[in-house]
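Before the break, one more example. Copy the sequence into your notebook; we will annotate it together after we see the structure.
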Amino acid sequence: MAITIVQKGRRKKLILWVGFVIVLIALASIFYFVFLGAKPPVSEKPQEAVPVVSEELKKLDIKWEILKDERFQALESFPDISSLTVEESGRENPFVPY
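Here is what the structure looks like once it is written out:
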């Protein structure tokens, strides 16, 4: 019985020391990166921004003849949503029993 108490005490001390070392490493790295001005490692080649107008868009050729096609002219637009009537459904209070 006495042996298990000593082992539990050793385990707690070990956990405390490991936690202390982790906290110490974290504080040292924060001090190094923040106060000494060292920058964390990044990739060597910086990422390039996406160009606003790419070369492919500059070469884009729009064929306006499609608008004169009779199949395109035969298309109909959707009806206005405001012309639809909305009916009330359900009960005023759905939690009241029938």
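The helical segments are 2-35, 55-58, 70-73. The mean pLDDT is 79. Try to locate both features in your own notes.
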